[in-house]
Amino acid sequence: METTKYKIVVAYDGTNYHGWQIQKDKPTITQALQDTFKKVFGSDISILGASRTDAGVHALGQVASFKTDRAIDPQTMRFAWNNALPNDIKIASLAVALKDFHPFYSVQQKTYHYHVFLDEPSPLVQRYGWYYHYPVDIEKLKQALNVFVGTHDFKSFCAADVETDNTIRTVDLVSVDFIPEWNAYRISITAERFLRYMIRRLVGAALKVARNDTLSIEDLKKALEAKNPNNIFPTAAAQGLTLQEVVYKMEDIYE
Fold first, then answer.
1. Which listed residue (13, 25, 44, 54) is catalytic?
2. C-alpha–C-alpha distance, residues 16 and 28, integer Å
């Protein structure tokens, strides 16, 4: 029976999940999507995502694909699926995709947001940012983050047990903006690909430099050049991170 490939954009609050990827005996976003699809439509699917967000990380623009032989109008499928999903997961869009579209390998750029609270946050937004209990020099924070723009070996700023020998990545853009409605600073980081924990380690390192008179921008550059993940710089909390957007060439997705 002929199958059709679909592209979905998924938003989720990752607080109650052990990340995107399926894990044995632990609730994950992928597991919830697949289980709910089977419950509603009576068939199994296997979902591939653009980014394997970690436990506690959120998304507004996670992209994924799946195949099914169920002949259902995309909007009808999205409505019925959303109706059965938990309230903390929502399919923002669903459309037929090219058969060779791959949500991971076809990526042009990913943008993540990291929110930092320097004052005690409102309970309405506190689960989407990191309450940082130190004074921070915002200009120094910007300078520290700019160290990471460009192509570098990020071995010093990723998971120590990262599952690749190639730790070279290119960061296209970094910005820091104050978000008045949240009373928070938003760090935006854009690149084609990231390493595991890379964004959280970059943010943690930049914040440590920006709050500490004894650490300089040069110290951060030296740590980057050292290619040693076992350094003095912390990993920022997972709850502050949100996958904001994944960008593709339109001709790589749809006919």
1. 54
2. 8
54 belongs to the catalytic site? yes
Report pTM. Answer: 0.94
Instruction: Specify the number of domains making up the chain.
Output: 2
Look up the CATH number of the domain holding residue 235.
3.30.70.660
CB 66 within 8 A of CB 251: no
Q: What span, in angstroms and rounded, lies between the C-alpha atoms of 178 and 4?
A: 43
Look up the CATH number of the domain holding residue 78: 3.30.70.580
pLDDT digit string, tens, across residues 178-216: 999 999 999 999 999 999 999 999 999 999 999 988 999
Full residue range of the structural domain in which residue 82 is found: 4-105
pLDDT band at 253 (very low <50, low <70, confident <90, very high): low
- Tokens standing for residue 119: 């004052």
Q: Is residue 252 part of a domain?
A: no
